[in-house]
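Reopening this ticket.

The earlier resolution said the output was attached, but the attachment link was broken on my side. Pasting everything inline this time so it's all in one place.
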Amino acid sequence: MISRVVIFLSLAGCILFSYFFVYFPARDNAQVILVKSSYELQSGTQLSYFLQTYKPKNKKERFPLLVVMYAVGFDVDQTLAAWRKDARDHQMMLLVPDQTHPDAEKYYGAKAYIHLIEELVKKYPIDRRNIYLLGISKGALIGERMIQSNSDLFRGGILAANPDTDLWKVKKNQEGARYPSLLLIHGGADYQYPIQLVRRKVSDLIEKEVDVRLLEIPDAKHEYRRSWNSVILRWIELEREIQKSYS
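Inline output:
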C-alpha cells in the first residue's frame, strides 16, 4: 500500500499477420479477445505485440486504450499478468508492444510504436479520443519520446520511475488540440534518478502550461509497484470524466 502521496497540480504501410486469439468473458459478459500478432516496419523488421480487445455490441461502440511500455528486466508476459485483469475490469483495451531488444528505442524507434498504434486504431474498436500511455523506467523513456513526437495521439501519459530528467521541449499541437495530461510517479528514495530532478521537470512543465501531476512515493526506490495500478486507473477515470464535461 502507498503510505503517503504528495501531489503537485497544474493546469508506412504495415502488414499484420500470425494472429493468435484467446476468448474469455469480461466483467459485463462482453467477449474479450487476446491478440498476438506482428507489425512489419518499412525496414522489414518485425515488431510483435499483444492486444487485449473486445467484441463491440454495435458498430459504434469504442473502448479506451492503455499502451504499456515496460521496464528493462520485464517482458510481455509479466506485463500482461500485471495489467490484463485490471484493464478488463475497467473495460479498457490493453496494448503491450515488444521491447525485448537491448536498445528498443533505437532499434525500433518511438515512431514505430506510434505507427503501430495508428494502424490498430484503424482495425480495432479503439476510442481515438481516449488513448493513454504508461511507461515504466526505460519504457517511460520511450514513452516520453512518443508523447513529445505525437502529442495529439494521446489523451494522457503516465511515466513511472522515468530515468530521463531532461526538461521537455513542448511542441505546439495541431490547431484546436490539447497537450496530453501527464501523471509522473516517482520514488522519494530513488537514488539513481533523484526526486529533486523530477520536481524540476514538473515545475518546468507547469510553466509551459502542461496539465501535470507528480505522485511522489516517499519510500519507493527505482521501481514499480502493482498497487500503483489502481492509482493510475483512477487518474484515467478522472481524465475521462473531465473530457465528458467538455464534450
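Reporter confirms the inline version is readable. Residues 43 and 108 are 10 Å apart (CA to CA). Residues 1-27 have pLDDT under 50 and may be disordered.
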